[in-house]
Amino acid sequence: MRIGFDIGGTKTEICVLSSSGDLIWNHRISTPKRYEDFVTAILELVNLAEQHHGQADAIGLGLPGAISPATGLIKNANCAFLNGRDLQHDLTSQLGRAVNLANDANCFALSEAIDGAGKDAPVVFGAILGTGCGGGLVIHQQLLVGPNAVCGEWGHNPLPGYHEPQDGPARACYCGRHNCIESYISATGLQHSYQLKTGQTLSAEQIIQAYEQAQPAAVDCYHQLIDHMARSFAALVNILDPDVIVLGGGLSNVRQLYRDLPDATARYVFSDTAQVRFAQAKYGDSSGIRGAAWLGL
């Protein structure tokens, strides 16, 4: 039995998986706003799960942040009360056994590599295309984190081949840089592209609906999105050449991506021919918590 947690700004979810990956139980609570209350809540949820299902073989947490390799403390978490805390030590010491922590995008990639859309593929890159975009890399079902805990953070590389007449004015990113990939191939990026073209503000879902209705501005924005994605993923393929790129997040539900992206990406790959495989996440929004449960594998 494995226990996984998905930590969010508003909710914290726990799940119990069997050794074969079947969901046995899950439960949600509101995320506490104080660190001490948060630690207590995690301990109580573990106790609740184990009262009903026996002691877990592994416990893992997927976090909206990362653990600094230099200090062991959490950094860049959108749950601000976690930043600067040694959560792994505090939970491990109180539970008396190992607790594994990882970035939520890494958990997504691990889940899809173990028993999801990337199952049995040697090299899997998981990309979450939501409000922003992030990623994780799994090789032979082992998650790569790196000495700086930034493996997979390809969304904060510059958009390859940026050219203002083609791509529009430079876009500022919250990280302090300009033209980051996530400023283009995310729901926010698509909204920005549409607003630049029309002066109107629509959600990414509304823009895709307009594209499906063949509205010219939305059609132009969709084709621009495909080109931005193709250039971004081709740069990834040129470095890693993954067997499969698994897409999650809201934009992963756009079914036309799986029709248009492979050929568009192949045109930018450094090869005379290129086979680039994209797959939609098997477990959708549940991939993160499932990956947290698999962390101790």
Layout: helices, strands, pairs:
Elements: E1 2-7, E2 11-17, E3 23-30, H1 35-53, E4 58-63, E5 66-67, E6 74-75, H2 87-95, E7 100-103, H3 104-115, E8 123-129, E9 133-139, E10 142-144, H4 164-167, H5 187-198, H6 204-212, H7 216-240, E11 244-248, H8 257-266, E12 278-280, H9 287-294
Parallel strand pairs: 1-4, 4-7, 8-11, 11-12
Antiparallel strand pairs: 1-2, 2-3, 5-6, 8-9, 9-10
Helix pairs in contact: 3-9, 5-7, 6-7, 7-8
Written description of the protein model:
The structure is a single chain. α3 (104-115) crosses α9 (287-294) and α6 packs across α7 (216-240). It is globular, with a radius of gyration of 20 Å. β8 (123-129) and β9 form a beta hairpin. It has two domains: 2-109 and 286-294, ATPase, nucleotide binding domain (Nucleotidyltransferase, domain 5); 120-281, Nucleotidyltransferase, domain 5 (2-Layer Sandwich). The protein is built from nine helices and twelve strands. The mean pLDDT is 95. The strands form three sheets. A five-stranded mixed sheet has the order 3-2-1-4-7, with helices on both faces. By secondary structure, it is of the alpha/beta class.
